[in-house]
Amino acid sequence: MQLANADGPVVLAFPTPIYRHRWPESAALNDALRALILARRATASSTVRSNIGGWQSSHDLMSWGDPSLATLGQYINEAFGAAMEAEIGTRAFTCKLAVTAWANVNGDGDYNRHHTHASNHWSGVYYVDLGGPDPDIVPNGAIEFQDPRPAVGVYDLPGVQSVATWTIQPEAGEMLLFPSWLRHGVLPFRGSGERISVAFNLRVGDLKR
After folding, report:
1. Any residues with CB less than 8 A from the CB of 8 and at least 6 apart, and which?
2. pLDDT tens-digit series, residues 158-196
3. Coil, helix or strand for 113?
């Protein structure tokens, strides 16, 4: 991989991208997704993977047949296109894109253990509803990424801050996209209501430029 700005005075040799996309006019979509997800929760038991407490749907969300999922699919395609343009320098490419998605509903005290998404290329999450987080607890229900550099904690360099984790406190209508190998989890949600999100994996095949 060619390093960007490799001739400059500072070279970021191994940066890890986390793409953030916000759709400010997403209230109607979020209302529809919330109703769809809570209705499914009322009739289906939770899968158990990284989630501690809460409810996680089966991983076939994109086939549930609701019109809101077509809009969500457009959002995912927009985010994927922007990420690939940043990575390869163009959107003039074709590929086969396999999408797997599922819903998460976390209540007070629920969280997700740190994990990765094996056998995929990109992973992401779209935030439908943040519930009513306790404002005295910060961060609260945030997604947390672990520093992928394995030796970063071997020693402390005086005057230089080392990074062990990075947290993002999302907004409703926001989507994050990141490499599937990047280890991440969700901190405990503390507050009222329910924190609702849609997580997804993307697998890219037959990429042609």
Report:
1. none
2. 877 777 899 999 999 999 999 999 999 999 999 999 999
3. strand
Is the dihedral angle over the CA atoms 46, 51, 54, 56 positive or is it negative? negative
Q: What's domain 19-145+164-208's superfamily in CATH?
A: q2cbj1_9rhob like domain (2.60.120.620)
Nearest to 30 by CA among 133, 187, 174: 174
Helix, coil or strand: residue 76? helix
Please say whether the beta carbons of 187 and 165 come within 8 A: no
CB atoms within 10 A of CB 77: 13
Q: Taking the CA atoms of the chain, what radius of gyration do you get in angstroms?
A: 18
pTM beyond cutoff 0.85: yes
Burial of 64 (0-12, 13-18, 19+ CB in 10 A): middle
Question: Is 143:74 a contact under the CB 8 Å cutoff?
Answer: no
How many whole angstroms from its chain centre is CA 149? 20
- b (16+ CB within 10 A) / e for 196-207: bbbbbbbbeeee
Which of helix, strand or coil describes residue 151? coil
Element (H, E) at 85: helix 68-88
